[in-house]
Amino acid sequence: MGVGGVLRDRNASLYLSAVVVSSFGSGAMTLVAGVWVMTLTGDSALAALVTVLVWAPTLAGPMIGAVIDRIGRHRAVLIATMLITGAVVLTLALASWLWLILAVMLVYGVAYVAIFAAETALLPTAVPARLLGDVNGMRMAAAESTKLTAPLVGAGLFTAWGGGAVAALDAATFGLAALLFYFLKPTHAAKPATRERTRVRDGLRYLADMPSLRRVVVSAGVALALAGLAGAMTFALVDEGLGFAPAFVGVLAAIQGAGSVVSGLVSGAVLRRMPPLGFAALGLGLFAVGVLLRMTSVLPLVLIGTALAGIGLPAPLVAASTVVQTDSPPELIARITGTVQLVMYAPSAVAQALGAALVGVLDFRIPLAVVGVLGLGAAGRAAWTVLGGAEERPPARAAGS
What we know:
Layout: H1 2-8, H2 10-41, H3 44-55, H4 61-71, H5 74-90, H6 98-126, H7 132-146, H8 150-161, H9 163-183, H10 201-209, H11 211-231, H12 234-242, H13 248-271, H14 276-295, H15 299-312, H16 314-327, H17 333-358, H18 365-387
Helix pairs in contact: 2-3, 2-6, 2-7, 2-8, 2-9, 3-6, 4-6, 4-17, 5-6, 5-9, 6-16, 6-17, 7-13, 7-16, 8-9, 10-17, 11-14, 11-16, 11-17, 11-18, 13-15, 13-16, 14-15, 14-16, 14-18
């Protein structure tokens, strides 16, 4: 088990390779789309709309997941979604109309939700259950590692050859990722859900009936919401707190990304030694301490805090993904994943909007202090649940183990 065990598993290696390829293209494209819109219009609000369009389809996660579960052929859905999305993105290499860029990014958001749900459903049918924690952690590490280079490559291509070149790169990465998934062969198939078991409310009902899953998912949602609020304070921290140029935000992003890579690589090993909710609590605690250190505006402490936040934040996300895969009925896993995405990411979008409003009227240290205190409180509550013995999990499914 561990990194070596994952790399020796053919399906796991193909999956992680596809994640690296697709994440690199997506990282370049999502950055450049906003820059592209800003260049065309000079309107920062329209540039910000790109991010809104990418994340808005998360609200439709339950419905998208239900459709994927009804189809049941998760690998085929994944490959088709990637090929179609790549073709749609490629249209931007032919034209740079504002409405087309915005429309493509909305399609991008729908595709993201569908791909994540299909991947989550496919993975337990292709990778041994004992490796799921390691694979989910390494997936996080792989995705975060691309953030260290993809935005720079995207910006360079945009400067040299325009947005069409970045669109062509992204389309190519979708195609290559689809090819890698084509060679990934599930060891067994999950049966399609019946019409009666693909209703929109089924995912929320399942979360309500499964405390072990609900607690970890809520912890991940809290972590992302707090991260969204804290993230909105970053420019103010750099400008007002440290007195540096805005470009220093990139340095902090790189440090946080490096911390997330480290966290992802060790997640599987940690999950074998402690329950998922305990791992989520540990991650929340590290993240909260990191945010409180950033609040000090003392450069060494800010750098240490940024690294701690990067190490801590992935933990509840990896824990939630792993529990969804191990504790969900195979025929409903995409459906549940869509609901989990809604529960996890919708509060983050609200928190980011709240942070954007607060940063103009409050000293940035106040929201960071609130985030730190709430994060420690959430971590303590989760840890108390684990230590008090209230965390009970159903037996892991034997399929693919």
